[in-house]
Sequence to fold (537 residues):
Amino acid sequence: MITAERKPFEEIKESIRDFKKIMVLGCGTCVAVCQAGGEKEAGILASELRLAFGNEGKKVEVSNETVVRQCDDEFMADTTFLEKVRETDVIISIACGVGVQHACNFFNRAMDGKPIRVVPGLNTTFMGANIDLGLWEERCIGCGDCVLERTGGICPVTRCAKSLLNGPCGGSSDGKCEISKDIDCAWHLIIERLEALGELERIKPVELYKDWRPSHSGGPRKIVREDLRL
Amino acid sequence: MKSGSNLERLLEKGEFVVTGELGPPKGPDVKVVKEKAALLKGNVDAVNITDNQTAIVRMSSIATSRILIEEGLEPTMQMVARDRNRLAMMSDLFGASAFGIKNMLCLSGDHQRFGNHPEAKNVFDIDSIQMIYMVKTMRDEHKIICGEEIEGDFKMLIGAVCNPFADPFHYRVHRLAKKVEAGVDFIQTQCIYDMKRFREFMRQVVDMGLQERCKILAGITPLKSVGMARYMAANVSGIIIPEEMIDRLRGAGKGNVASEGIKMACEQIQEVREIKGIAGIHLMAIEWEHKVHEIVEMAGLLPRPRL
Fold:
């Protein structure tokens, strides 16, 4: 899933300082699961803002709403609070960066082109897995050309700090990456996994240059599925 | 001949070679380069010019290498995968060749987290093994990666590094084999202190016959002080310094630690000379260039052979 972390409260507060009618918009999917931007977090942020502005003696209206997926028209179309959006000065979207942009785009369309101001309340971090309670780790950078079949199901493009395809580098020590003792060396894991599978031979040939075109290096990406289009 | 460099010809002749290292200044100060070059001249056969080592911004390895040529030394231009994509690498290699640089060394590069611009975006378009293959293709097939022909002559002796002290240990020889497969001509190892582990590594190398397909130079770094030894052991990934070496340094007593460090380095040189498959040493006297002459002389490696 996509993981995110809430921005520092002061940064969020500063970004909406000039506005009176504020809506915190939660997203009920990925960021709800990682407890950064779901319904509960939308409520908490709205309360914190009311309290902070109240203490400053500033009169603001802060409401909160949540949609199941801000990144999808189908779910945004179910929105029951469109009229409230029309009256709002600023929306703090606590979805991932996709949700922030899509919510903005959706509301603009729904308001017949009336520009709606949307600011982010989260920093979108990575595509990762929930490893343990309160612990998420990055697992995929979406390079567009999966190599997991050759690397024992452990991604070196994402999990090696240098994205080496012929690792491990000389900085691998006791199974840890040179950049931090808290980060596993992906290549150490790959070697262990392939050995356990009896497939170490797989990484013995030189892996040649990666084609980065399917990744973000090829420019912003788009998927067109003709079979699904109307 | 792959490049016709001094280093290549000495290695081909079977001479026990000595390469040195020069870290460029943190600015365009040519004087610093010339001073360090003067200290190395005549004491080593070729000099590695580091490429923003430990991710600290310094004069480029290509420009520093050129200054070395003008000073009458032979450079080995280091190139890291951290700072350049394949386009920049190939164009710099053309430039290096045009400047008369005949040896280069392919490295991944220390992560920028360690340097003076940790907020930088890294590149890592291709890795060090792919870089070896790229340079070999350029030299032997006269083509760049996309298949286009190179205009003019491109010659280069291809070096790379190997760290027998990184983990997982048993895989290290296989990674070296991949570098050999990719086309490396010579290898310089990480600084050796744990001789037992190094001997075991070289036994594996010889078992696979890798020393017949590339020349292996043993990395030697004299320990200047107990503090330096402790710092390296604790903070530099992939360096193992046995406790007894640190004890011996400390035991030398005040004022004698540096000379004891040099003595130990010379003993290490003698030890590696006797290990099968070692074709020379790579002496990394970090910010201790003025001691290189003394070390090489004490190790009985002077005068350097002339061709």
Remarks:
- The mean pLDDT of chain B is 97.
